[in-house]
Amino acid sequence: SAAVEVNAVCVTVASISDAEWDDLLEEFEEKSYLNAHRWKPGQDPYSLYAFNQRESERIPSNRALRDTRHYRCTTLHYDPYLSSTTIVITFHNEARSTLLRTVRSVLNRTPVHLIYEIILVDDFSEDPNDCLLLTKLPKVKCLRNKHREGLIRSRVRGAEAAGAGILTFLDSHCEVNKDWLPPLLQRVKEDPTCVASPVIDIINMDTFAYVAASSDLRGGFDWSLHFKWEQLSAEKRAKRADPTEPIKTPIIAGGLFVIDRSWFNRLGKYDTAMDIWGGENFEISFRVWMCGGSLEIIPCSRVGHVFRKKHPYIFPEGNANTYIKNTRRTAEVWMDEFKLFYYSARPAARGKSYGDIHGRQELRKSLKCKSFKWYLDNKSGTHLEHLASRFCVDSEMALDGIESSKMLVISPCELSAHTQRWEMPFS
Ligand code: LR7
Ligand code: MN
């Protein structure tokens, strides 16, 4: 198979050509695929998907995107013998236009030999044909759940069916940008314990405009386990001489990443007792760092994602209950004494049931993972934020190191600034 790959590299590093596409799409019948569930005049274009369905349908499935990378990214070279990946995309009632654009952008902007397959996991969507019809496209396979499972168990199902040694996860409303994949595969090849994420560009939910996101961000969270982007501190930005360098991140947003398959398996995949949506990104992030891996954002890889304001789908157990169950499992298994902060930020979680966590606790023990305190001290950090102003307590002392100038000041939060890191020791 090594020889085959070498051949593939020599013969075709290109993706599918326009002419080949015309043939494929004729066979696939893109128009009839889209027409079957088109927005109809008079309907609220937001009602089904919580984004502008009408606008999405006006945009071609192969639209051009602005290359949003730093110009220096274009001068980088990647290993020509990267191995291929299985791309897993789970979805529940995704709009056909966005699902197709996700798949087509992947096929258009990825060297063919790097795509082992694209596995679509249809999480019991109303119309099985949303998924099935797409298998007429090259490399695309479809697995359909018999019941609604949620994205966590669906991803595990996709991962277990994967034929490649590297897994790539994407949401079902993405558009990958130029050269998005090689930088991610390269990092994971260099260090198979590294979990690599792209910079996530913004596809506007009203206009579908593709907007560059800042590449000076990393993932963060508050004690109620809500994800947020945080600005890299001035310190960290100054240290980053090279804008193409990976950014270590305490947390990943969750949906878009590349991971070595054996590492994913050895680390315990996901907590499959988590339902529907939410919390799994904290769980996998804590687990990766605490159990010997790392999380990085790779600035030279860009993928757009449709960000929206609410969920278009139903949570059978209720949105809040599900989020609490999933985050509570995370807190109980991974956060040690710091789970107390979680419970004080989310008092409603205290009485809620969260199922059996023995298996996950055993996993943590058998992997000999480090403590949550170690994670906070080394990979994340705590700060004190003033609720009304959202400013942070800052210490000037730590800046000049002079004992006599112990001074507390209030300044804009820069969560990774060491002058804003505080500890509340448990005693
Ligand atoms: O029951 C479900 N079954 C599914 O298969 C519910 C959802 N899904 C699918 C869904 O169709 C989509 O493809 O799961 C994917 C994620 O759901 P979204 O797009 O409704 O959620 P999101 O984009 O708000 O979710 C972010 O956080 C989630 C926490 O569980 C997941 O980790 C998502 O993958 C994640 N998305 C991203 O990281 C993209 C960047 C967003 C940010 C920040
Ligand atoms: Mn999403």
Automatic annotation (TrEMBL):
Pathway: Protein modification; protein glycosylation. It catalyses: L-seryl-[protein] + UDP-N-acetyl-alpha-D-galactosamine = a 3-O-[N-acetyl-alpha-D-galactosaminyl]-L-seryl-[protein] + UDP + H(+); L-threonyl-[protein] + UDP-N-acetyl-alpha-D-galactosamine = a 3-O-[N-acetyl-alpha-D-galactosaminyl]-L-threonyl-[protein] + UDP + H(+). Its main location: Golgi. Residues 86-267 form the Glycosyltransferase 2-like domain. Pfam families: Glycos_transf_2. One of its GO terms (molecular function) is metal ion binding. Belongs to the glycosyltransferase 2 family. GalNAc-T subfamily. This is polypeptide N-acetylgalactosaminyltransferase. The gene is galnt14.
